[in-house]
Write a structure and sequence with these properties.
There is one protein chain. The chain is about 40% helix and about 40% strand. It has about 140 residues and is α+β, with helices and mostly antiparallel strands. The chain has one domain. It has an 8-stranded mixed β-sheet, sandwiched between helices. The protein is globular, with a radius of gyration of 17 Å.
Length: about 140
């Protein structure tokens, strides 16, 4: 089993400049996303809106990458949001369950879609939290009126 873990770490990641300095094979990119193969069965997926996903990375490797990444971000969060999923490959059929997915093959596009979905989940958690904070602030101001 492999681990996909995604974080919402900042308000903004400078993907344009990161594209020039990240070691690895760039497999996919557009104006807001960078997807790299950094080693055999190791991938990083960066999103301009402040999210990042890791496939098959240890906690120490993630921490080391965060140390590098901070200088390429705007407003780094001291307590980033995160979400995790386990991925098994070589299954007889594709199967999805809570926090676990089994897939037939480990093609990088399949892994990219899994990483994208986990990242979208953690980003929704972040924006849900921001909405709650705004509602609390609005209610507080309404009570003063």
């Amino acid at each position: 089993m492999y681990r996909v873990i995604s974080y919402h770490v900042a308000d903004f990641i400078d993907t344009r400049n990161l594209k020039q300095v990240i070691d690895g094979e760039l497999l996919y990119n557009d104006a807001t996303e960078l997807f790299y193969k950094t080693a055999e069965l190791k991938y990083i997926y960066l999103f301009r809106y402040g999210a990042i996903s890791f496939f098959n990375y240890t906690d120490d490797e993630i921490k080391q990458f965060f140390d590098f990444l901070k200088s390429h971000c705007r407003h780094w969060f001291s307590q980033p949001f995160s979400d995790e999923m386990r991925v098994g490959t070589g299954a007889a059929e594709n199967k999805i369950s809570h926090n676990k997915i089994e897939i037939k093959n480990d093609h990088h596009e399949v892994l990219r879609m899994i990483m994208l979905n986990v990242t979208q989940s953690v980003t929704l958690d972040y924006y849900s939290n921001q909405t709650e904070l705004l509602l609390e602030e609005t209610n507080s101001h309404t009570q003063l009126l």
